[in-house]
Amino acid sequence: MKQADLILKLKLLKSIQPDYNVLKTIEKDVYSRFETNESNFVLRRIKAFSSNVFLVFKTNPFASYGIAAALLIVVFLSVSTGFLPNEINKTLLYAKIATAPNQYVKASLALSYAQTKLDAANLKRNIHNQNGIKDISKSIALANIELSELKLMGDHGKYTSAQCKQLYRNYQTSLENLDHYITTSSLNREDKESMASLKTQISNYEKQAEQKLNLY
């Protein structure tokens, strides 16, 4: 084709003005082809990555165990941070009590937890609010439940009668100290009303402890 003929044809082509709808259709077709190619590319990359990960797990089983353990730790920490520290401590305590080898250990764990709630710093912080009072009440209730299941005569090969009695005396002392702290604390009318049920609870537990010690 001669150069002059080519120039003429190009000028004729340039003079053509496509309809607006035709141009939009062409545009949509181009973009759809581009997006399809791009999505296929991403899908191929994902499949390639998955294959590589599976190959690593298959050839290195210890790596898969390590990653699984790491994921479990991450999940545990994520869940744990959603709880208050006090709730976490209680959850751990219940787990320890449930898996304890004998009743003496169970009672010791429950009493130790209650005693931490009854130290001077905790009492000063918790004695003037409803949640704190409930926390104290629940802690001594748990101790009372586990101690009430303890046989003061001992269990051969597990714990002695002397150990049980001493644990009960420690429990009695903790209750007496709590009662004394409440009685001598300067409380307003609202605090005294809140303490009424707690003092009744303490009094009942003291009687139960004394009766049990007198039996042996």
Overall morphology: flat
Sheet-strand content, in percent, reads: under 5%
Instruction: List unreliable stretches of 5+ residues.
Output: 77-83
Quaternary structure classification: single chain
Element-by-element helix/strand order: HHHHHHHHH
Distance between the termini: 123 Å
Q: Strand tally, please?
A: 0
Mean pLDDT: 75
The tally of helices reads: 9
Gyration radius from CA atoms, angstroms: 38 Å
Class from secondary-structure proportions:
mainly alpha
- Total domain modules: 2
Helix-residue proportion: over 70%
Largest sheet: none
Summarize the structure.
The chain contains nine helices and no strands.
In words, what does this structure look like?
This protein is mainly α. It folds into two domains: 1-82; 85-215. The protein contains nine helices and no strands. It has helices spanning 3-14, 20-59, 61-80, 85-99, 103-117, 120-126, 130-148, 161-184, 189-215. The N and C termini lie far apart (123 Å).
Question: How are the SSEs ordered, and which strands pair?
Answer:
Blueprint (H helix, E strand, L loop, with lengths): L2 H12 L5 H40 L1 H20 L4 H15 L3 H15 L2 H7 L3 H19 L12 H24 L4 H27 L1
Helix pairs in contact: 2-3, 4-5, 5-7, 5-8, 7-9, 8-9
Task: Provide key terms for this protein.
mainly alpha; about 220 residues; 9 helices
